[in-house]
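Action item from last week, closing it out:
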Amino acid sequence: MTRTIEARRWWLRSLRALALVAAAGMAACAQAARADTTEHLVVGGVSRTYVLHVPPSPGRSMPLVLSFHGHGGTGDEQSHLTGFDALADRDGFIVAYPDGIDRGWNDGRPETAKNGDDLAFASALIDALQQRYNVDPKRIYATGFSNGAIFSNYLACNESERIAAIAPVSGTMPVADAPRCKPKRAIPVLEIDGTADPIVPYNGGEITLAGLKRGQVLSAPATAAFWAKNAGCSPDPATSTLPPIATSDGTTVTSTTYSGCSSHASVVLYTIQGGGHAWPGGPQYLPALLIGPASRELDASDTIIQFFLAHPMT
């Protein structure tokens, strides 16, 4: 038993070290000048931190994007993984990369409850940024990777009157939270998942990390269907294959789009056939042997931002 625990610890330390190397490489290669600051916010007596990027000339009313890191990550690493800073400067939105307690999020799974009241943190962060900047209350969005993606679903379930749309990547709806999720409005959702994800299974089931079971999630299609039903969409989505944009990539992208939704909402699932536990268009932050391949057939960051900008709260 001791050897098994030590092996798991070694595996997690190795993942952490490789992720830091990948993040450092992304930072060195960044083309846009970074102007991020690390901010502090006390919520429920606990000092929380987040990385903030504000585009030039932030005087006008702007969208706000909350981007949540995966388990074991940080807000700073999430900024490097997504490259949202350059898009924020291009399209004129504020982006915040919050830090989870112990590098994780309470995302609706019982296994993550020890991570604290992250719903309160997200709400307080929105309040704080609205007080400091001219944030458009109808254009506040949430996205995330892995544990952060699952939390994006959880946030939309509980803060539907504040979050205009969500875009989870490599993270679906927890089985435990689905019966409790009753949003007060139709929420546009862009879901992105890989069929070769060894951590968060595309077809649903147990999340497995370093040999540890971390709770059950719905499949990616079931998650999209859940949000489509919530938005009053037609139950019969249209499916198409996106034209390839990379060579020798080994992955393809299928789009499943629900139409006829209420309140101008839309629900889209991008299935990365052969894609792993990764951010499409982002770095291969760990070997494909561990997480599966990072697809080059979709620029997830730009796709997400275009989806957000097309879906203000109505």
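Closing note: The first strand starts at residue 37 and ends at 43.
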